[in-house]
Task: inverse folding
């Protein structure tokens, strides 16, 4: 549906031009997913190297290809490309329209208000966005786009504005991963869509295992994971210079670092003063209370076109290997062009395997309680 990429440099000096290049390159690595518009959010021109809150957030969005967005970035006279930023967080996104036509106003990032207090990029579908939208409109919040995503920053702003005056409840977006920035906080939330975090530092990481921090008290269980006890270490970094890369696909991270952390459903990743921590609202029975830093087993060349004329041609010639790697008792869900290809190959697969083939649209399957069995392929 779309692609997410974000870059945070903490105590690592980077010019605004270098930051733009990193964000654009990340989006280019995700272009193979298909999209109709692209956009980024970066710190505005009043950025201070000592106070991360002392600036506005600048949104730059464009219909069409990432190349058009790249050209648009260098037309912003108010942004000094040679300005060196010691600490900065930028988010970038490619959108495939699901709610509302392809346009600049419907493209991501979306904002909470005209002051850009909170900005969000999102991959997925908010199934109850109409109810949320109506609720927020009755409370004076104005919407600019036709998208479901816009309810996220508006709802975050509502919760933030009423954090002391009203009793509010946290919510779970239906099938989503998103990155948000605002009011000095940078966070990512995952539910149903893939998201991973790359870590790069000239210093050795404090730990390869980050304990999940739960809301409220919980009983400390015996360490059964054969891992070092890291109960006193809640981050891979102690506030020294570090860079973080957030992406919906490893292909956007591998050229920067091979050290990554895979987020799981309902995980919330927060970066405060360079320290990454993982949070969850509740502890479920049997779930792993630790998130491990892993080493990506892939090379940059694997995601490049190589000698092929297009990514489509590359995918066609890699199909034998791809089929072998994926047909291991997994059930795959797709939307858009993925569904079309499944419809086109359904009859051939049924003839070759003598098994019934069911094609499901991912967004439709999300709202059903369809039984899935171990021997389903």
Result:
């Amino acid at each position: 549906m779309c692609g997410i990429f974000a870059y945070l440099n903490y105590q690592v000096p980077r010019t605004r031009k270098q930051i733009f290049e990193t964000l654009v390159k990340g989006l280019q690595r995700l272009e193979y997913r298909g999209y109709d518009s692209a956009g980024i959010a970066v710190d505005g021109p009043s950025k201070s190297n000592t106070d991360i809150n002392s600036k506005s957030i600048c949104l730059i969005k464009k219909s069409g290809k990432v190349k058009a967005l790249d050209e648009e970035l260098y037309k912003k006279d108010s942004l000094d490309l040679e300005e060196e930023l010691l600490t900065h967080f930028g988010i970038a996104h490619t959108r495939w329209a699901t709610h509302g036509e392809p346009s600049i106003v419907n493209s991501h990032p979306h904002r909470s208000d005209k002051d850009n207090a909170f900005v969000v990029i999102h991959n997925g579908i908010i199934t109850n966005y109409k109810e949320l939208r109506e609720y927020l409109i009755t409370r004076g919040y104005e919407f600019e786009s036709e998208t479901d995503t816009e309810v996220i920053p508006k709802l975050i702003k509502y919760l933030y504005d009423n954090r002391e005056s009203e009793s509010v409840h946290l919510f779970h977006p239906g099938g989503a991963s998103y990155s948000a920035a605002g009011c000095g906080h940078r966070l990512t939330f995952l539910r149903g869509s893939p998201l991973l975090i790359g870590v790069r530092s000239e210093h050795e990481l404090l730990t390869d295992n980050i304990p999940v921090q739960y809301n409220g008290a919980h009983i400390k269980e015996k360490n059964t994971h054969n891992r070092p006890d890291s109960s006193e270490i809640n981050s891979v970094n102690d506030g020294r210079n570090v860079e973080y890369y957030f992406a919906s696909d490893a292909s956007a991270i591998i050229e920067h670092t091979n050290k990554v952390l895979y987020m799981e459903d309902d995980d919330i990743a927060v970066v405060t003063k360079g320290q990454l921590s993982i949070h969850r609202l509740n502890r479920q029975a049997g779930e792993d209370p630790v998130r491990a830093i892993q080493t990506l087993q892939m090379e940059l060349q694997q995601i490049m076109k190589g000698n092929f004329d297009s990514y489509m041609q590359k995918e066609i010639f890699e199909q034998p290997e791809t089929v072998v790697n994926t047909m291991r008792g997994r059930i795959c869900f797709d939307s858009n062009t993925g569904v079309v290809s499944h419809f086109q190959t359904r009859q051939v697969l049924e003839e070759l395997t003598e098994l019934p083939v069911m094609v499901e649209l991912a967004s439709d399957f999300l709202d059903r309680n369809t039984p899935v069995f171990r021997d389903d392929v």
